[in-house]
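Field: sequence (string)
Field: structure_tokens (string)

Example rows 1 and 2, in order.
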Amino acid sequence: MRKFDVGFAVAGSIMSILFFMIVNYVTSTEYLWFIYPSLALLLWPIGLYCAKQEKHKLFSILCSGLIILFLISENIIHSPVHPWSMYAIFPILWWPILIILGKRAKTMSVAWVGSISIILYYLILNILISPGYPWAIYPAFVVLWWPLSLYHALKKTFFAYSVHASLLIIFFFITVNAVSSPNTIWAVYPIFCVLWWPLSMYYFVYKKRRVN
């Protein structure tokens, strides 16, 4: 099967972007919609070149930078009052960071540095941009799964993983319940369901291994 040449991809993406720009200008000048297909078209030659040259680090750097520029431009054009693009910039930067680190990205130190830095980043955004509600607890809950899962995967302690993960989920629901609706104690319902995870792991995996 014939492979596409990088030059063809560059020419095709440029021609397509120019076509969308002209159509956008002729039909609807009040809204710059051509930037959306242009983003995908720019990724075509970049991805093809990096794949043929096996430059995965360069691909992650160029693509993450292009996506960040796209989000910032969208933010400035449509809603310059609220800097919502800041919410996505820092997590996107971790894509090239992890690719550059290579095998070191699978270490516990990187997992802890990454998760703590992301939590602090969103905590600062929460305080400075939207202090009305402590929404930073949601990305913090998601990011903490990174070092937790990696630690137990390396140690192969799956029953302990179910216990620690259940405690994390329980703490999360209790915190959300206390913050969002303290007058209604609804956290007991998901907590009851979560408790079945370590309980089933104990009786069907851990205890069975001890008997054998």
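Row 2 begins here:
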Amino acid sequence: MPRSLDYRATSVHPAEKVYAAMVDRDLLEQQLKHLGGPGAAITAYETEPGGVRYTLRHGISATDLPSVVTSFIPGGDLKIDRTEHWRSGGAGRYDGTGSVEVVGTPATARSVMRIVDVDGGSEVMIRAEVTVRVPLIGSRIEEAVAGQIEKLLAAETEFTLKQIS
């Protein structure tokens, strides 16, 4: 059974400014340099009318993972390919979808994302669902992967908001 997670963060900046920073290629590269882990890179990036689509590769060292996870990872380190597709949803609103593949494992994630103006600034909302298709211990792995995703989202948000300020 998939593990769901909800992430929210607020900013004093308008949604337009937060969105622009979150999808800026140079800022994404800086963010990956600081937070992306081993082998981090932008593997695809394209703008399109009203939006952007990109794929980021993250790495998590095997030493930072619980043994239940590392036992299923070829080569030890975890490689995560994350694709996001963002588009304008109208004044003060940006909508996105995301997919995550944990390379070489039966772990995936899907997300729906939104940045919207609220009183006094904006709010980022992400709803994700992590699925690991491993009999018996899949739920333990889902919990570990979801925990890593939540930590990454918090760190990325903090990084982006510092860059805006």
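free_text_note (row 2): The mean pLDDT is 88.
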